[in-house]
Amino acid sequence: MNPNIEVITPVLWAVNSQWVKAGWISELSLVADRGESVNQYASLTNDGIMILKKESDFYPILKQIIPKIMQHTDQELQLCNQAMNEKLALNEYERLYLNVMEWEIQRRNVRRAYLRDHPKTIRERIRNFLMKVGEKRGNHKNSD
């Protein structure tokens, strides 16, 4: 894995987007034109991984919020999204929360489509990722 990629969770990574544009991070295949707000702070890969842009002012906040939102079920996200959209006026924090929920819904849709088209490939990538994390942290089944 490229050392310029910060893995927050298996489906949430962070990179400097200028490095991606310069070609220093060739492992990422970003989905083009997924909306203005997503392009400003985050992007999606073709396999449903959300990439946060480290140069964004909101990066430290997003890094904390997004993993918590990712824990919600699809139904919880849809209900909350619907309730937020029905409000007449949203403050800054509510708008940010609404945007992040919409990003997560969009990420899950892209991920589902990818898994339908590539069922075995993604399982192998996750297994390899978890093996690498285990090696770095010393978590082996048969280690002393």
Q: What's this entry about, in short?
A:
The chain has 144 residues and is α+β, with helices and mostly antiparallel strands. 56% of the residues lie in helices and 10% in strands.
Secondary-structure topology with pairs:
Blueprint lengths: L5 E4 L2 E4 L1 H6 L13 H6 E3 L5 E4 L5 H11 L4 H13 L5 H26 L1 H19 L7
Parallel strand pairs: 2-4
Antiparallel strand pairs: 1-2, 3-4
Helix pairs in contact: 3-5, 4-5, 5-6
Describe this structure in words.
The protein has 144 residues and is α+β, with helices and mostly antiparallel strands. The chain has helices at 17-22, 36-41, 59-69, 74-86, 92-117, 119-137, and strands at residues 6-9, 12-15, 42-44, 50-53. Strands 1-2-4-3 form a 4-stranded mixed sheet. It is globular and about 45 Å long. The chain starts with 5 loop residues before the first strand and ends in a 7-residue tail after the last helix.
DSSP strand count:
4
CA-based shape: globular
What's the end-to-end separation, in Å?
27 Å
The stretches of 5 or more residues where confidence is low (pLDDT under 50) are: 33-37
Mean pLDDT: 79
Keywords:
144 residues, alpha+beta, four-stranded mixed sheet, 6 helices, 4 strands, globular
